[in-house]
Amino acid sequence: MSDRIFGVVGLLLAIGYVFAALAIEESFLSDAVGPKAFPLLLAAVLGISSLVIVLRPDAEPDWPSLGRLVEIAAAVVVMMLYAQMLPVAGFVLATAFAAGYLAWRLGSGLIEAVLTGIGTSVGIYVIFHLVLGLSLAKGPWGF
Amino acid sequence: MKFVATRGALAAALLSLSTFGASAQECIAPANPGGGWDFTCRQVGKTMQDLGLIDSTMQVVNLAGGGGGVAFAEVVNKRGDDNDLIVAASTATATRLAQGAYPGNSMDQVRWLATIGADYGVIAVAADSEVTDLTGLLDQIKNDPTSVSIAGGSAVGGWDHLKVLIAANAYGIDDVRSVKYIAFDGGGEAVTQLLAGSVQAFTGDISEAKGFVDSGDIRVLAVLSPERLPGEFAAFPTAREQGVDAIGANWRGFYAPGGMSDEAYNEWVSKIADLYASDAWKETMAANGLAPLDLQGDAFQEFVTNSVAQIQSISKEIGIIK
Amino acid sequence: MDLLSNLGDGFAIALTWQNLLLALLGCFLGTVMGALPGLGPSNGVAILIPLAFTLGLGATPSLILLTSVYYGAMYGGRISSILLNIPGDEPAMMTCLDGHPMAKKGLAGEALSLSGIASFVGAFFATWGLILLAPQLVKIALLFGPAEYFALFALAFMTLGGVSSTNQAKSAFAAALGLGLATIGVDTQTGVPRFTFGEVHLYDGLDFLVAIVGLFALSEVFIFLENRHGGNADGSKLKIGKLYPPMSMIKQCIPTMLRTSFLGFLAGVLPGAGASLGSFISYSMEKRLVDKEGTFGTGDPRGVAAPEAGNNAAAGGALVPMLALGVPGSGTTAVLLAVLLSLNITPGPLLFTQNPDVVWGLIAALFIANFMLLAMNIPMVGLFTRVLMVPSRILMPIVAMVSFVGIYGISGSSFDLMVMIGFGVMGWVLRKFDVPLVPIILGTLLGNAMENNLRRAVTIDNGDWWTLVDTPLALSLWAIAIIGFVLPLIIGRKVKAGMHAKRDDEGSISD
User: Fold this and answer.
1) Does residue A143 lie in a domain region?
2) pTM, to two decimals
3) Does residue A61 lie in a domain region?
4) N or C end of chain C, less CB within 10 A?
5) Other C-beta atoms within 10 Å of C505: how many?
6) Would you say the ipTM is above 0.95?
7) Is B90 among the domain residues?
8) What are phi and psi of B90, to 5 degrees?
């Protein structure tokens, strides 16, 4: 059943892609093929393969329990917060928090999680920023 | 990509070698390495450093896409008040702006700094081609436009494309839209496909073609300059002397973010002026087929305004924009 | 012998203390950067350019440093592929397919050593190829017009089936998805924006690094989160086993390494194909050729040797068009080309005659770097495998954060991070559905080149689509592609049944 739903979603994606492709505004002077042809070709492949998936589904995948799904969703939220907070809070603080959270959720004790967070954050800062010279998010304290 | 000063105790060996200021000057080349914009950034950055006009290495960032539109949008939207940023520009930039090909962007959103010379267009064929002069090529196009594919490094409607159209128009080919132009990712790739025989002719700038002319792989049919260029380029005939009144001068220069402070703007303008006046730059120009074009600050701003207007009228005349 | 004396001159240039130290430094930094997800060879080289400039290095020493980084990254990418199932850089993604299953079987040490040797073999032959054949190889590159490139890319996608999934429809779905993602951004042919929905960040398209790190690294983190209570989340359960492979295993892989070195080198020589295509084609061709029992994908040593020899050979091959034509064959060579230009050296047909010291010094440096990397990598296998001793509850947060930093450090954009998280979720869902991730990456990597060449070819022939099959070379590429596509469909049922049985047997070991 899951595969059938997946295939239907794929079909919808293909249809959406076709509409988006048809909406491309062509420029005044185009090449012989134009910017739409290749996307339409792809949409066809996407649609046909989705159809095959609908008609000949594989065995049911092993879905996690609701609790696990919530766990993953929470991690996604933390990561998104991390992405947004990086420029605001600075690299070291944001990273220590995010890494600590992940360590905690993956089964570390509280103290171990805090240590993992700080260790990861400082370690990465040293390697990427101090050694390799990449510019990381600065934040209010410059690190 | 921005490289910031490295500090701290670790890897002291590496650190002691790094002399970067926290705000290294950055030059965006809105194309892949190897093209004209890239050359502009790198050559200017290197010469400026050699002359001591800047303290540290100019960081050259390649930000390709949309015929320079991606870089333009990036500068307007994200780097609007960066005082340490300049962007390589050329007639191609003005062309895209004139044709409205940078969606939502216009030339007054940035500050135009100065030029560093002009690069005249060339039209070339492979060394083993039967075509020996420009009129030969244009005759072929006139008789059967489908028989000649012309490769260039700009997108369809871009400056490399326009140059051919200007020449075709001057030769009396009415429907220039029938001229077959194939867009490649930069002049280097376009020349390679000329050598591979996939296309019959190449349109680009002298600086892009020079290496392959020296090696004897391609033959320049015409330079789109008013008169013959000096030095080793004197051997190339102009389009004009072959009876085709077409001129395609590709100026090269820089723009800066629109929110750059006046102080920083004036400093950049004077630095580029110093660069232009130096002997080292004159040598670079001579070695790369750059012709003189010396415009700074307000004069350049005005020049770009005129240039945009002129290209708009050419494009309309040729019939590629309404 | 002109060649030998040239090479001798090259070694005389490269064998100074300064240059040897630079090569060592480059090899080390390259290996590290290759192994870190998010930092690949092209970023690695780009990051070190300022170092070369601030050191005030001349042309040859700069090139020695940067090409050592390049080769080093090619070696390094395999380490995280094998140990963590996360490719360190894009060419190493094929190494995951058999390398990680080997590690799960307790053969991590063997897989690392073997892939190190395969990398050496690939790079070694590629360097000889560069010396002996560069001028001739340029002619091969010139045989490829737009139509031939399109056929080549089509071949890569059509031989996808069964590489990493048993379901052809899902492979095709993944490939179309990847290619579709590549069409996002400003159309490079006509300059019109496509599928950008007015979002400026999308004008330049999606960076495949964002895609690869999201799809592989973040989805791996999600899988661990999901399985925390399932019992098999604890990475420390993996046995490390022996560090070095038995001779019999190496012997078994020798023909594979030789064949894929050749293939990978050829793929590298073609501008626009590059190392990813090299390792991909090497793997899929080798699978077709020797995988009689269907063991590829379950930890077959040959499946580790093939892509590693292939991608290192391609790395060497990619230097041919860069040096001889001034056309970069991959992201990394594009950066190297930029370095050459800023040093006032114009690569192109005259480079070999005008700057022989640069060319031969570089070639000698490649040999030296390659031997150094072998000498460095084999003894360090023991050290690398220690990574597996770190419990996943500590290792996975580090992997996740390194992935974020790799992307943020390059682009400085939170938008890219959000896209990456999106890819992470997508990767997790797709893995649940057994949709292979490799075709998606391949699609985002090659999509633009594939489309542009299609459009160029058809435009050159005035809108005639038959142009795609009107040269012998294009025809033979299509023939191989079609055979590769149809054959598994015909004999597929039988093989599929066999592979399903195998999968079930090993279900406890693979996901």
Assistant:
1) no
2) 0.79
3) no
4) N
5) 10
6) no
7) yes
8) -160, -175
